[in-house]
């Protein structure tokens, strides 16, 4: 019986250590009400200037067939009139996070995000309400590929 328990522990401990090290922590910090820094695993991975304090939430994650990981974080500024704000795209290769691009987002609806493993594209669909002419719904499409975001407004 002791051999069985030892064998089970021999396999469980390395698995639990691997699972724990594959997790990460994220936080943002705002200094002087304008300098925002994003930290992942307590390392600064991105910084930008903003007029308001914000936190980030992970809203999309996928791993492609090569093992590359894609993350989409959404800004959550205090007092925001939108359902969330900008979407910030990061990639994780060899356990290192790299900021890639930002999608300027502020819409009445939440983004619909999908991933195509064959083309390695993240597609973000949504809609915005125009001010002129007032109240017209404008469909939006953003495509992230090769580290860059392309915007297609008014797709059908």
Could you please describe the fold and organization of this structure?
The protein is mostly beta strands and 156 residues long. The chain has one domain. The chain is 13% helix and 53% strand. The protein has 1 helix and 11 strands. The strands form 3 sheets. A 4-stranded antiparallel sheet has the order 4-5-6-7, with no helix packed on it. A 4-stranded antiparallel sheet has the order 8-9-10-11, with no helix packed on it. The longest helix has 21 residues, at 2-22. It is flat and about 50 Å long. The model is unreliable at 15-21 (pLDDT under 50).
Largest sheet, spatial ordering of strands:
4-5-6-7
- Give the rounded overall mean pLDDT: 76
Helix fraction by DSSP (H/I, runs of at least 4): 10-25%
Span from first to last CA? 65 Å
Question: Can you summarize the main beta sheet?
Answer: 4 strands, antiparallel
Elements, N to C (H/E): HEEEEEEEEEEE
| Gross morphology | flat
The chain-level structural class is mainly beta
Percent of residues in beta strands: over 45%
Counted up, domains total 1
Q: What is the number of E strands? A: 11
Number of helices: 1
Query: Radius of gyration from the CA trace?
Result: 20 Å
Low-confidence segments: 15-21
Descriptive labels:
1 helix, mainly beta, flat, 4-stranded antiparallel sheet, 156 residues
């Amino acid at each position: 019986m002791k051999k069985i328990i030892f064998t089970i522990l021999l396999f469980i401990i390395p698995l639990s250590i691997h699972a724990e090290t594959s997790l990460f922590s994220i936080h943002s910090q705002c200094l002087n009400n304008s300098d925002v820094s994003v930290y992942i695993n307590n390392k600064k991975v991105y910084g930008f200037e903003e007029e308001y304090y914000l936190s980030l939430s992970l809203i999309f994650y996928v791993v492609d067939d090569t093992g590359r990981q894609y993350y989409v974080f959404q800004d959550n500024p205090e007092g925001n009139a939108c359902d969330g704000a900008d979407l910030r795209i990061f990639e994780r290769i060899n356990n290192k996070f790299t900021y890639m691009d930002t999608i300027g987002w502020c819409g009445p609806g939440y983004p619909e995000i999908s991933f195509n493993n064959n083309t390695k594209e993240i597609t973000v669909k949504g809609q915005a309400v125009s001010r002129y002419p007032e109240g017209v719904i404008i469909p939006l499409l953003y495509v992230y590929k090769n580290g860059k975001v392309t915007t297609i407004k008014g797709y059908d």
